[in-house]
């Protein structure tokens, strides 16, 4: 299971990636220009929809420019998330059909965010990976078994505790992301948590 930590590049991150190979960067239109990509660090791409504040609009042009830069630089992402509307089922589904082609025509795996009210049977067949997001953490983790049973590739957003990491691993989740680790904890604290997770949860398929 890959753990994406934004574009975090501390010595602790480098140590974990070098020793276990399960760390990556989750980038976005805002963070890509600030990041020097490394061939040995897996990358996936978000869309900054979650950070849009009330009264503001998501910036389509910035997202499309990110795709153009990725293509120009020959980036090979694990997946790219179609722009979603956080917590809005209908708008997110509509956006999928509006923006999917911008990702798929470049040969990149297409991720779709799922939120409250969605069911597996509503997901278009052209989705490559499910991004379990939503507004409520309660809904996210209660619905997670449903998504992992229905789809082979599942990513979970905002996974910020050792307990939730273990749960995602047990359910067969492909990847998770979380920024709480390095924003609100000391490096030696989250480093030890990740070491414990990798050492106690490794199997022959890792």
What does this structure look like?
- The termini are close together.
- β6 (129-132), α4 and β7 form a beta-alpha-beta unit.
- The protein has 206 residues and is α/β, with parallel strands linked by helices.
- The protein has a single domain (2-201), classed as Aldolase class I (TIM Barrel).
- α5 (162-170) packs parallel to α7 (187-201).
- The protein is built from 7 helices and 8 strands; from the N terminus they run βαββαβαββαβαβαα.
- 39% of the residues lie in helices and 14% in strands.
Overall number of structural domains: 1
List the helices and strands in order: EHEEHEHEEHEHEHH
Q: Give the low-pLDDT segments.
A: none
Main CATH class: Alpha Beta
CATH fold label: TIM Barrel
Q: Total number of β-strand segments?
A: 8
Overall average pLDDT: 92
Walk across the major sheet and give the strand order: 3-2-1-8-7-6-5-4
Based on secondary structure, the structural category is alpha/beta
Q: DSSP strand (E) fraction? A: 5-15%
What is the general shape? globular
Tell me the number of helical segments per DSSP (H or I, 4 or more residues long).
Answer: 7
Distance between the termini: 8 Å
| Rg for CA atoms | 16 Å
Under CATH, the homologous superfamily reads Aldolase class I
């Amino acid at each position: 299971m890959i753990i994406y930590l934004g574009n975090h590049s501390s010595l602790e991150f480098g140590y974990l990636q070098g020793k276990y190979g399960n760390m990556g960067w989750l980038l976005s239109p805002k963070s890509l220009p600030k990041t020097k990509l490394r061939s040995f660090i897996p990358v996936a791409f978000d869309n900054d929809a979650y950070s849009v504040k009330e009264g503001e609009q998501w910036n389509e042009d910035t997202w499309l420019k990110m795709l153009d830069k990725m293509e120009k630089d020959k980036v090979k992402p694990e997946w790219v998330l179609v722009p979603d509307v956080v917590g809005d089922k209908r708008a997110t589904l509509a956006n999928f059909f509006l923006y999917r082609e911008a990702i798929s025509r470049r040969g990149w795996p297409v991720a779709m965010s799922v939120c409250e009210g969605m069911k597996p049977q509503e997901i278009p067949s052209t989705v490559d990976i499910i991004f379990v997001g939503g507004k409520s953490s309660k809904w996210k983790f209660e619905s997670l078994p449903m998504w992992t049973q229905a789809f082979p590739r599942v990513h979970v957003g905002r996974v910020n505790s050792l307990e939730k990491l273990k749960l995602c691993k047990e359910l067969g989740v492909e990847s998770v992301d979380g920024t709480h680790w390095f924003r609100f904890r000391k490096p030696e604290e989250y480093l030890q948590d990740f070491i414990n997770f990798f050492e106690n949860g490794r199997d022959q398929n890792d």
